[in-house]
Design goal:
Layout (H helix, E strand, L loop, with lengths): L2 H6 L15 H12 L10 E6 L2 H10 L5 H4 L2 E8 L1 H9 L9 H24 L3 E5 L6 H7 L6 E10 L13 H4 L10 H18 L9 H4 L11 H9 L5
Antiparallel strand pairs: 1-2, 2-4, 3-4
Helix pairs in contact: 2-6
Length: 245
């Protein structure tokens, strides 16, 4: 493997950080690397809120379900899907713009995710650790008010950045045959592949350093389809001006 592929395949989420600040010059380089990501029609439909105020970081940690590393990492970012800037620019250029289209929600969300992943890869290449925080969607309205987000902007996820103070094992991924299909969607082997993967994940959770537990991949999915459904997101996105047409 070349160094880039090796870096990508060694990713771990970091939840314990050293009390060491990321130099500002490096921090800005990471954001510029994020901006270099692919973007639909060059819209660049994202805005990043760098949350510096300690009280705000602590509040977000609580709103996200009690995740203390939001407050303890060197830098915490909230990545926002932003159609406000581009829509207003098109309007000033003379367009009779349509707001609230579902495609705009998709474009902005995808742009934001691509941009964030570029930041993550750049950060890890510099020896930094990261942790995505989807929990800010537990209370997206409160987060939006705290960060003064206008209409047509919504918080997609947060990101902790800092120097790692732990070295967790790399978490296994599904086998390639489960996610790579040839010509059409063939799931004839998926159950067997998932069963094998569940066995692998059980061994991983039993053997990993810290937070050992008796579970599988399938068992871990349950909250995603029960407690983490976040039914409030539909109304929230409609109120933000996304995905209503």
């Amino acid at each position: 493997m070349n160094p880039t592929i090796e870096l990508l395949t060694s990713h771990r989420s970091i939840r314990k950080f050293k009390d060491q600040a990321i130099p500002r010059a490096l921090f800005e380089q990471l954001i510029r690397a994020g901006q270099a990501a692919a973007t639909s029609n060059h819209v660049q439909a994202y805005t990043i809120i760098h949350v510096v105020n300690p009280q705000n970081r602590q509040k977000i940690a609580e709103l996200a379900g009690g995740q203390p590393y939001i407050a303890s990492c060197s830098d915490f970012l909230v990545f926002c899907a932003d159609m406000k800037r581009a829509t207003e620019a098109a309007e000033r250029a003379g367009a009779d713009v349509a707001r609230g289209m579902t495609e705009q929600l998709l474009v902005a969300s995808i742009d934001t995710a691509l941009m964030a992943q570029n930041v993550v890869v750049a950060a890890e290449s510099e020896g930094l650790g990261i942790c995505y925080i989807g929990g800010i969607r537990n209370n997206p309205q409160d987060v939006s008010e705290l960060l003064n987000l206008p209409a047509h902007v919504y918080p997609v996820f947060g990101l902790c950045l800092g120097y790692p103070d732990q070295a967790p094992e790399v978490k296994p991924r599904l086998p390639l045959d489960a996610i790579l299909k040839e010509d059409s969607y063939d799931d004839s082997r998926d159950q067997a592949l998932v069963d094998n993967f569940d066995s692998e994940m059980r061994q991983y959770y039993q053997a990993r350093t810290g937070s050992n537990k008796e579970t599988t991949w399938s068992e871990q999915l349950k909250p995603l389809f029960t407690s983490k459904l976040r039914p409030h997101m539909k109304d929230f996105l409609n109120q933000r001006g996304f995905g209503v047409k």
